[in-house]
């Protein structure tokens, strides 16, 4: 499977409408890929809290429509990063959207772990409650967003749900870049799965972004890593490698401590979290 991570620049002087059009154009150039991934909250900025209320949109809003068309035109699975979703009851969520090659919304995931320590996202947004996998059957994608990366319990549940590729869009700050790189490798090693971490670059409300989008294989080896400028990182993933690593070092079967069942598990549900 060929995966392309679009490390898009978030410039506060560029409007969300302009950035939507630019991102859609980049996606359309990736027709040779099977999966294309965008960062977290790339239309507004992950730290642009002042714009969350005014910039929130429903699951069929302008970003979804633009990304659905881009996925269809390119013929790719498109993980469109995340948006500030306004639910029918008015609650805001940080919600990832995944589109199939025909442009249909294949699945959505509401971020479970909200960042902010009693401010920002942590108080402005609701928490997701569903563990979500989606994507083509031979490359099951496990969905997480940014701050989720710090919580290994979620990734164990995604692995148990069959995930082979863990996809993590992010708006990670530059001052904690080494945490991003370390945790991406840790999640790959413990899950024996590919990790695709797609971060933005530029600034979100004055917060410098880490960039360094990263692809890690199931053995924990970094296959590719971006710098700090806007770029597209394209990598070939050998999905048989997941089976090989899990067979050669079968640590997952030796886990002794149980975890509570998640509130819900969904796969390929166009209204997951909706």
UniProtKB/TrEMBL annotation:
Highest taxon in the source lineage: Bacteria
Q: Transcription: present as a keyword of the record?
A: no
Sorted alphabetically, the keyword list is:
Hydrolase
Annotated region (Disordered) at 1-21
SUPFAM superfamilies, A to Z: Carbon-nitrogen hydrolase
Task: Name a GO molecular-function annotation.
Answer: hydrolase activity
Give residue ranges for domain CN hydrolase. Answer: 1-239
Q: Which Pfam family, giving just one, matches this sequence?
A: CN_hydrolase
Family annotation (InterPro entries): C-N_Hydrolase, C-N_Hydrolase_sf, UPF0012_CS
Keyword match Disulfide bond: no
Family according to the record = Belongs to the carbon-nitrogen hydrolase superfamily. NIT1/NIT2 family.
- What name goes with this protein? Carbon-nitrogen family hydrolase
Report the source organism.
Streptomyces coffeae
């Amino acid at each position: 499977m060929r995966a392309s991570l679009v490390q898009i620049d978030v410039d506060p002087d560029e409007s969300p409408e302009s950035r939507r059009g630019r991102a859609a154009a980049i996606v359309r150039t990736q027709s040779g890929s099977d999966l294309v991934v965008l960062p977290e909250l790339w239309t507004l900025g992950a730290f642009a809290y002042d714009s969350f209320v005014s910039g929130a949109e429903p699951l069929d809003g302008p970003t979804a429509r633009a990304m659905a068309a881009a996925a269809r035109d390119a013929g790719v699975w498109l993980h469109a990063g995340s948006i500030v979703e306004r639910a029918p009851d008015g609650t805001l969520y940080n919600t990832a959207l995944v589109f199939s090659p025909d442009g249909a919304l294949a699945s959505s995931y509401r971020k479970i772990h909200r960042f902010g320590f009693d401010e920002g996202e942590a108080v402005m947004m609701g928490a997701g409650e569903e563990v979500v996998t989606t994507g083509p059957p031979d490359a099951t994608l496990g969905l997480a967003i940014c701050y989720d990366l710090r919580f290994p319990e979620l990734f164990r549940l995604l692995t148990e749900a069959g995930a082979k590729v863990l996809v993590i869009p992010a708006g990670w700050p530059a001052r904690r870049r080494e945490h991003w790189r370390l945790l991406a490798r840790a999640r790959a090693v413990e899950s024996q799965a590919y990790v695709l971490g797609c971060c933005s670059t530029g600034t979100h409300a004055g917060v410098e972004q880490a960039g360094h989008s990263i692809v890690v294989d199931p053995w924990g080896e970094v296959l590719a890593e971006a710098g700090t400028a806007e770029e597209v990182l394209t990598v070939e993933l050998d999905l048989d490698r997941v089976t090989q690593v899990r067979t050669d070092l079968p640590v997952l079967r030796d886990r002794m401590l149980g975890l509570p069942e998640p509130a819900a598990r969904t796969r390929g549900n166009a209204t997951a979290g909706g």
